[in-house]
């Protein structure tokens, strides 16, 4: 007896896209907490550089198992992949630098503006259209993110000396927004393996100098733990690429706010940090916004 499968509807496609990005964001939340897991023995650049090495090793292993050659990954999109890697790396570097000059919670709040920025960029460059139901999901998620950041003490003590680092953080958010658009474009043009290889190779190159300039701990066993984050980051990137391939950036972009939810979960389960009622309310609003976005029909 044959089994028939119901055809995929536009709503189902958006739901799949959002679930992919949620899984990818959850995995990245673990990586972003890697510095806290490891203590103060390694710089952010060092951890990221070693993660890229572990990620590249993972990709090459998978390619070997599948019998794929590196030549098959190289195509006319290499320059765009480099631009995507550069916007992601330097956007992250800008936020890391700003965090050293002003409160981290304030930098995080500014950095999350990239979610808001990526929406008009999608309209301008990708000709996306925002529907009323979509706006409702975006607004709900944004309010939820705002509630969480305010509960963490964002901008409760702002000094005039913060203007320059705040500008740097804002520049980082702009770069991350452009990276989101490039992920969408490249996910439609190239396969996931090609995107993963390019971003890890270019990221490794871009992170090499700042990593060695800020290298803190040379113990091999200590540094080996960061290599193990490579497969985790590769899995996260794979799910995010799949999500961006399935839906518009205006659908999947706001899902990045779930990073705040997963960060709170990591803090609770691994470090005994009890989330405040405001964090729970904010997380609920973000989840509600995600459900609304799942109901938006894809183009």
Automatic annotation (TrEMBL):
Keyword Transmembrane helix in annotation: yes
Residues of the EamA domain: 16-149, 168-292
GO cellular component terms attached to this protein's record: membrane
Superkingdom, natural source: Bacteria
Record's keyword annotation contains Transmembrane helix: yes
Family matches, as Pfam families: EamA
Cited InterPro entries: EamA_dom (IPR000620), EmrE-like (IPR037185)
Membrane spanning stretches: 17-38, 44-62, 82-99, 105-126, 133-154, 160-183, 195-214, 226-245, 257-274, 280-298
Keywords: Membrane, Transmembrane, Transmembrane helix
UniProt-recorded name of the protein: DMT family transporter
